[in-house]
Automatic annotation (TrEMBL):
Name of one Pfam family that matches: FecCD
Origin species: Vreelandella rituensis
Protein name stated in the entry: Iron ABC transporter permease
Key words, A-Z: Cell membrane, Membrane, Transmembrane, Transmembrane helix, Transport
CC annotations in GO: plasma membrane
Source lineage: Bacteria, Pseudomonadati, Pseudomonadota, Gammaproteobacteria, Oceanospirillales
Keyword Transmembrane helix in annotation: yes
Length: 304
């Protein structure tokens, strides 16, 4: 995070950054660090932590190593909500609110369809989410096709993940802290649930309330992350796998490690996105893919 605060179109030394954080330094440095870089860096760290923890929870809930935060169509619903607000010419807060509302609507839609007249199962929930996500993708393509040309760049950048307008980092940070406090003590139960619902129930775990807790928590984490920074891929899928290769499959270690490693990865990716071809900026989702995929493949090769 200190590296992110010091690097940019106007570089600062670590001593300059430390002086600003202590309330010293010149006015230009204070404006640059406190008003521009600190909010964006905190938002990047919080968003990366939200996505990584949500991905780890979804992989436990669905008992599928390929599950990620977007597998249930939350990103598609949020994207449709945000694009509708952009087409209407709304500002940043309205776009964020529309994205959050779209993500929650997609959550309710997927769960309602998967539940049907009986009880939902992980496979049924996964299939329903994939189908709903495909439907949202078709709606997004249609909206991009009929949108005015002057609005397309902003819409495409939001869909690829963009932290340029992340100026309110405290809501995602607060949600990450709250969910970590509530969910991480359940690490022992999550370890048992990963072995299957029947074995978990036989060992005294309340399976259905625990699955509800995981689903609601992962949905809120993903909705807040997408609302803050748009659709950023690979973080929620790659980071939990990377950490399991390093620290094992104990959720008591994986979940807090995901919060730290996911945030670190996205801060690094955002720093590269705004400095590689400065003053132009790249979509941060492109950088996460370029960083995460080779690293994950290397670790997978080493652990064979």
């Amino acid at each position: 995070m200190l590296f992110s605060l010091s690097v940019g179109s106007a570089s600062l030394s670590l001593m300059d950054v430390w002086a600003v954080l202590r309330g010293e330094g010149d006015a230009l440095s204070q404006t640059l660090v406190l008003e521009l870089r600190v909010p964006r860096t905190l938002a990047a760290f919080a968003t990366g932590g939200l996505l990584a923890v949500a991905g780890a929870l979804m992989q436990v809930l669905l008992r599928n190593p390929l599950a990620d935060p977007y597998v249930l169509g939350l990103s598609g619903g949020a994207s449709v909500g945000a694009l509708v607000a952009m087409l209407a010419g709304m500002g940043g807060m309205v776009i964020s609110g529309s994205a959050f509302a779209g993500a929650l609507a997609s959550t309710l839609l997927v769960f309602g369809l998967a539940h049907g007249t009986g009880s939902w199962t992980p496979s049924r929930l996964l299939l329903t989410g994939v189908v709903v996500a495909s439907g949202w993708g078709a709606v997004i393509t249609l909206m991009l096709a009929i949108s005015p040309a002057e609005r397309l760049p902003g819409m495409l950048y939001w869909l690829m993940g963009d932290l340029s307008y992340a100026r309110t980092p405290w809501p995602p940070i607060a949600l990450l802290a709250i969910v970590c406090v509530l969910v991480m003590p359940l690490g022992r139960s999550l370890n048992v649930l990963a072995r299957g619902p029947l074995q978990a129930a036989a060992l005294g775990v309340a399976v259905r309330p625990l699955e509800w807790t995981i689903y609601i928590s992962a949905s809120l984490l993903t909705a807040m992350a997408v609302t803050t920074a748009g659709s950023i891929g690979f973080v929620g899928l790659v980071v939990p796998h990377m950490l399991r290769l390093v620290v094992g499959n104990d959720q008591r270690l994986v979940l807090p490690a995901c919060a730290l490693a996911g945030g670190t990865l996205l801060v690094l990716a955002d720093t590269l996105a705004r400095t590689l071809i400065a003053p132009e900026q790249l979509p941060v989702g492109v950088i996460t893919a370029l960083l995460g995929v080779p690293t994950f493949l290397y670790l997978l090769y080493r652990s064979r």
